[in-house]
Structures are given as structure tokens and as C-alpha cells.
Design brief:
This protein is α+β, with helices and mostly antiparallel strands. It is 20% helix and 28% strand. Strands 1, 2, 3, 4, 5 and 6 form a 6-stranded antiparallel β-sheet that branches. The radius of gyration is 15 Å and the shape is globular. The termini are far apart. It binds flavin mononucleotide. Flavin mononucleotide (FMN) binds next to strand 1, helix 3, strand 3, strand 4 and strand 5.
């Protein structure tokens, strides 16, 4: 069983969007190798049709370049990235997405693939909690719906020392 087959088995029915890419960072990479149905729902596409595309296809005018640069730098250093971006659906609607992206490291310590867990977030009403992550709350995939496996991996945890813009 390859790592992709393993993740497919574990991710297929998750309510959280999961997407796996290869390790190439320069365009046209990274290339999507797997996306679960929740990723299709999040991005407004059939999840099978995004295989072979780059995740950049969701970007648009209000996708912050500074955040993408930080994203790129983290991946180039085989480091995880946790942050918030504006992305777009095919009908042009903009949504705010929380992305927890991690390298899958080979024996030599370099990234062989990347995996991202993603969910839509909305601006928190009232006074924001401390830190940038506190400005947003999950739109429909709550922390309660995270499985024990994802919780154990600290997915979407705001206490990590990762990048947050
Ligand atoms: C697994 C994975 C998932 C990603 N998901 C998204 C995404 O949902 N939205 C987005 O705008 N960028 C996403 N990206 C980031 C872009 O693919 C790209 O790495 C980013 O734009 C920075 O690279 P660039 O400076 O070459 O544009 C993802 C990257 C990886 C590796």
C-alpha cells in the first residue's frame, strides 16, 4: 500500500477537506494527486476533476501574496504551514479557508509529498480572540467533528508555532 492509498482510505469519509500533492513547488507544481469529496465540496468542484491541477486554481484577486510567499517558504524548507487564505469557487464566490499543510518526509528528511487539511472559516462576531487565528471560526466543519486521529495530529490547532496571517 502506498502512502497515497493509505491516506485515501483514511480521508475519504472525513468531513474535513484533504488534498495531497507531489513535492514540486515551482509552477506548474505542486500537482494534486488526491482530493477527498469534502475538498470537492469546499472548492465547489467534483473532487475527481481536480487531480492533476495545482492548488493555485482556487486563487484570485484577494488571495494575499504575502501569505502565499510564507506558504511557499514553509514548504521549501519542508516545514508545516498553518494559515488563512481567500480562495474562489468556479462561480466567482470568495471564501476564507483555513489550511493546515504538512510535508510527508522521506527517509532522507526531505518532502516527498504534501498533505493539507482545509476548512471554510468565517469572521468571528464581536471581539476577536487573541491572535490572527482567533478572528475566524469554522463555517461548517467544527472542531468537535475532528476525529481523534486529527486531534492527535494537532490539525487546525492554534497553539502551534506555525505561520498565521
Ligand atoms: C497540499 C497543498 C494544498 C494547497 N492548498 C491550497 C489552497 O487550498 N489554496 C491556495 O490558495 N493555495 C494552496 N496551496 C498553495 C499553492 O499550491 C502554492 O504552494 C502557493 O501559491 C505558494 O506558491 P507560489 O508562491 O509559487 O504561488 C496548497 C499547496 C499544497 C502543497
Amino acid at each position: 500500500m502506498t502512502i497515497i492509498e493509505f491516506i485515501r482510505a483514511f480521508a475519504h469519509d472525513l468531513p474535513v477537506a484533504v488534498v495531497i500533492t507531489d513535492q514540486t513547488l515551482e509552477p506548474p507544481g505542486p500537482t494534486i494527486l488526491y482530493a477527498n469529496p469534502a475538498f470537492g465540496k469546499l472548492t465547489g468542484r467534483d473532487h475527481k476533476t481536480v487531480i492533476g491541477l495545482t492548488p493555485r486554481f482556487m486563487q484570485g484577486r484577494e488571495t494575499r501574496r504575502a501569505t502565499l510567499d510564507a506558504f511557499h517558504q514553509a514548504l521549501a524548507a519542508s516545514q508545516p504551514f498553518h494559515g488563512f487564505l481567500s480562495n474562489y469557487r468556479p462561480d466567482g464566490t470568495r471564501y476564507r479557508v483555513e489550511i493546515d499543510c504538512r510535508p510527508l518526509l522521506g527517509m532522507d528528511g526531505t518532502a516527498e509529498h504534501f498533505i493539507a487539511f482545509e476548512r471554510e472559516v468565517v469572521r468571528r462576531l464581536g471581539r476577536p480572540a487573541a491572535g490572527k487565528a482567533g478572528r475566524y471560526v469554522p463555517a461548517n466543519v467544527s472542531n468537535e467533528l475532528l476525529t481523534d486521529a486529527l486531534r492527535a495530529l494537532d490539525i487546525f490547532s492554534t497553539n502551534k508555532n506555525n505561520h498565521k496571517i
